[in-house]
Amino acid sequence: MSESPWVTIYSFKAALIAWQLIRAGVGDVAGCIGVGDLGTMLEWIKKVFATRSKWGVGRAVLKSLDELEAVSLII
After folding, report:
1. Cβ distance 5 to 55 under 8 Å?
2. Rounded to an integer, what is the distance from CA 75 to the centroid of its chain?
3. How many beta carbons lie within 10 A of that of residue 22, not counting itself?
4. What's the pLDDT band for 36 if we cut at 50, 70, 90?
5. Cβ atoms 23, 17 nearer than 8 A
6. Domain coordinates of the chain in residue numbers?
7. Distance (Å, rounded) from C-alpha 54 to C-alpha 51?
8. Cα dihedral 41/43/45/50 (nearest 10)
9. What is the pLDDT of residues 39-69, one digit of tens each?
10. Could you tell me the pTM of the whole model?
11. CA–CA dist 75, 64 (Å, integer)
12. 64 phi, psi to nearest 5 deg
């Protein structure tokens, strides 16, 4: 793949913004992006970023998603 690491970083940033909007209950963000709830969204995000797991930035994103999931279960 010839994708720049910045694409992965900005994609992750967009995913985090969507995550925050869904958690805050802002409008129908989940429906707008085609996921039913936060759990489904997390599964979809992990699937997308798993294809980038061979890169350092991809592994960092997946680790961050695991931490986000763990914190979300606590809150």
Report:
1. yes
2. 18
3. 20
4. confident
5. no
6. 28-75
7. 8
8. 180
9. 788 888 888 888 888 888 888 888 888 888 7
10. 0.70
11. 16
12. -65, -40
